[in-house]
Amino acid sequence: MDEKILVERAKGGDKAAFAQLVNTYSDRIYNLALRILRKKEDAEDILQETFLTVLEKINTFDGRSSFFTWIYRIATNASLMRLRKKKIVFQELSDHSDFQESVESRVFIDWSQDPAANVYTSEVKNKIDDAINKLPDIYRSVFILRDIESLSIKETSAILNITDENVKIRLRRARQFLRDHLSDYFDERIVGNNA
């Protein structure tokens, strides 16, 4: 069923239409919250909080943005508020066995590869995750929405309620921050391999 029709029915109190919206967006909201908060329990809380907010405020949704953008903004704001309140110490995302990825984004291991290469790949991923975790909140949210969630600049702008230009500036600063934090590690690896 068309999303606009579902939203209109949900506004009118149709519980089945609301349930279908929940089913449509639950995985993406959960994964977004998990990427930002890095903790299963917090992501579950944000998922619940997001849909409670949607249920309470669905009549205020006026359709100026897409429903997806509206609900993502609610989830992102709730996640960032929780992050600020708790001053979370982040842990590596890959520690979460419950992380729900789509089949298209899963990486299948080629066991014929050199085991040393797999160790190096794991080490690199840990360094990258660590650098992402050190990003200031305003840059982390843009980086996650644009480079991890693959949302457009317009969608990111609408979700964070900032201008397109601010999205570009924050993303550029996030990438520069990551480049600066990772350059020493990669320089050491190159020097170590050449020695």
Fold and architecture overview:
The protein has 8 helices and no strands. It has 195 residues and is mainly alpha-helical. The protein folds into 2 domains: 1-91, Orthogonal Bundle (Rna Polymerase Sigma Factor, Chain: A), CATH 1.10.1740; 108-195, Arc Repressor Mutant, subunit A, CATH 1.10.10. Helix 2 crosses helix 4, helix 4 packs across helix 7 (153-160) and helix 6 crosses helix 8.
Tags for this entry?
single chain, mainly alpha, Arc Repressor Mutant, subunit A, 2 domains
Short description:
The chain has 195 residues and is mostly helical.
Write the layout of secondary structure elements.
Blueprint (H helix, E strand, L loop, with lengths): L2 H9 L3 H23 L2 H18 L9 H20 L28 H19 L3 H12 L4 H8 L3 H31 L1
Q: How would you sum up the global shape?
A: elongated
Beta-strand percent range: under 5%
For the largest beta-sheet, the strand count, sense and barrel status come to:
none
CATH class of the largest domain: Mainly Alpha
Corresponding CATH superfamily of the largest domain: RNA polymerase sigma factor, region 2, helix turn helix motif
Termini gap: 62 Å
Strand count: 0
* SSE series: HHHHHHHH
Helix content percent band: over 70%
- Mean pLDDT across residues: 80
Rg (CA only): 19 Å
Instruction: Quote the CATH topology of the largest domain.
Output: Rna Polymerase Sigma Factor, Chain: A
What oligomeric state is this? single chain
Count of domains? 2
Model regions low in confidence, pLDDT < 50 over at least 5 residues? 88-119
Q: What is the number of helical segments per DSSP (H or I, 4+ residues)? A: 8
Structural class of the secondary structure composition?
mainly alpha
The second-level CATH architecture of the largest domain is Orthogonal Bundle
